[in-house]
């Protein structure tokens, strides 16, 4: 019996998905619940498990192609049914002329076995870590020269190969499948597809994440009239508190203790005092969210992700530090799932790591505001009694959706946030 | 580490660290009682409790008959009724008669009484070989007990950990089996912070950071693994060394974080390989970090023979040397 597999809906607001990589080829057998295709949507890569045990009969969507949820993407012959012979490749490999061996995944079915002379034993001997890293970095283990015992390909070999960038074939596949990719009458030659090493005079193709970021930013700036404000906060006491606790905290929890959880704690308290700031604009009115789910913007080398700390108002500073630490770990390991990235009601952007002291962030569409932590800078400050002291000062910038609130509420929110942070520490329990 | 008083410290060996900690426990809490074979007049075979009986009297420093089941059985009753007994099994090799009292009684007290009773009992015992102790003074017993929920097991390697963990064990409301490696007793010296402090049970110590291999050990072998890892450092190979300190509860997080970083794992312990502590660590890592592993997990342990022989070649064959550890590390790093 043949089962048709459709593009799954990965997340409540997701309407389409891109086939990032076929993990199984036509003719491969697949177990029930075994991942057989990797689908990427809005910043998330998810492996899709097979609903049945059987053999892949047909692949209906090419890698890099984006289709609406519910669109058939593959046909699987369930065990017991006779599988027809694998059809020939649907088209000639685009990268046939490329000198570098193309990854098996970008070739048609069956061609990978003859694409180079390296025996498949290399693949069979690949350790779990090598297999995972190869999949994550879209590297074909068979094209790597191993440096381990008896020429084994090590995890470091995969990472070294990945750092040289995916082959041009993969980049082209993504570019051609991306409707928003820039098109000109005579397109300039495509450069390397890694964002790390762009080649002047060439186009860096948009990957899925970059395209979504672009769309979201334009949407937010077009629909939500942004207003902006900034306060300067004396964080000396919080800084002292954090400095005193950080070594012990890291030893006990394995997570770094930064200023972020203290800041989020103050933000959720201020959101409770100004519930409209935790709302969103709808044509029917301002929807005030019940939950306080704080998105934390995390910059990765290739793109920005904003994982969400759910019910952040119910967590202590320690709980927030652990929750944020776990999300940051996941983000760096490319392990964020749909649940980690959805449901945010307000966003915090820790922007100061590189010394920025003011910024005008763009609101995460569907929220009322975004607030930044800028760099903590030691400054001479004139205090209330006209004495001058050296204090740890930090700016915090707020962009707000002016449809939801006016400056009166927004400045009240910022003033409240400042007050709460300045009252924190230097003693207390996390 | 929660240090409550001054930041000064004293150099001690492991025997002195046990002795100093027991002494403070006796001084600071009248409920503390020590019982065991030769702990009184003889002052313990390693002189750990020397003269305690003169200061604290035979009511609190109790010489018992050679009857381990009674030592632990009496201690369980004392603990349930509000005392803080520290029972000593003279050598771990003799603990077997008290197995029922430890596993069947002490470990189950809290559960059996639905939390009405706890059993704040510490059972101290010297274990391990490498001292020509032959069949009945060399055994490692941890694997016989680590299967038992309700029982905590500690096996420190350094004097400062001995003190912090023994204090934590004494404070703990449930039974703790406190294993002291007898070869480290006078061999290992180190700074021990003055004043009362505890080290949480169940927290491993990352002794040396490295990037190419994680080595997990406890007890005497921690020192040898560290020595081997330093040797490899000179060869340009980077090995991370974790001292478990507590065998149960086990600090899974520290092990998993390290393996996720280095992608390779070597477990070294003096106990037999089959069903040893390394088996549990291997299973845990395979369950929770398989896709970070770049090499098969390796265990360097004692062979499955009934005991450590008396003859030096037999003892050496039974134990792993720093050289063997270094060779196992090299092979895994290069794998």
What does this structure look like?
By secondary structure, chain A is α+β, with helices and mostly antiparallel strands. Among the domains of chain A are: 2-78, OB fold (Dihydrolipoamide Acetyltransferase, E2P) (Beta Barrel); 225-423, Chloramphenicol Acetyltransferase. Chain A has helices at residues 121-124, 128-136, 155-163, 168-177, 208-223, 236-253, 260-273, 317-332, 338-341, 407-423; strands at 2-6, 16-22, 29-30, 35-40, 45-49, 54-59, 66-68, 72-78, 226-234, 279-282, 285-288, 294-299, 304-305, 308-309, 346-350, 369-373, 376-382, 388-401. In chain A, strands 9, 12, 13, 14, 15, 16, 17 and 18 form an eight-stranded mixed β-sheet that branches. Chain A has a four-stranded antiparallel β-sheet with strand order 1-8-6-3, with no helix packed on it. Chain A has a four-stranded antiparallel β-sheet with strand order 5-4-2-7, with no helix packed on it. Chain A is globular, with a radius of gyration of 25 Å. The N and C termini of chain A lie far apart (59 Å). In chain A, 36% of the residues are buried. Residues 81-119 and 166-196 of chain A have low confidence and may be disordered. Chain B folds into two domains: 2-198, Thiamin diphosphate (ThDP)-binding fold, Pyr/PP domains (Rossmann fold); 205-334, Rossmann fold, CATH 3.40.50. Chain B contains 13 helices and 16 strands. Chains A and B meet through helix 2 of A and helix 10 of B.
Poorly predicted parts of chain B: none
CATH architecture of the largest domain in chain B: 3-Layer(aba) Sandwich
The structure class of chain A reads alpha+beta
- The strand count of chain B comes to 16
**Second-tier CATH architecture of the domain at 225-423 in chain A:** 2-Layer Sandwich
CATH top level assignment of the domain at 225-423 in chain A: Alpha Beta
How far apart are the first and last residues' alpha carbons of chain B, in Å?
37 Å
Can you tell me the CATH superfamily of the largest domain in chain B? Thiamin diphosphate (ThDP)-binding fold, Pyr/PP domains
Could you say what the CATH topology of the largest domain in chain B is called?
Rossmann fold
Mind describing the biggest β-sheet of chain B? 7 strands, mixed
Order of helices and strands of chain A: EEEEEEEEHHHHHEHHEEEEEHHEEEEH
How many independent structural domains of chain B?
2
Order of strands, main sheet of chain B, comes to: 4-3-5-6-8-7-14
Shape of chain B: globular
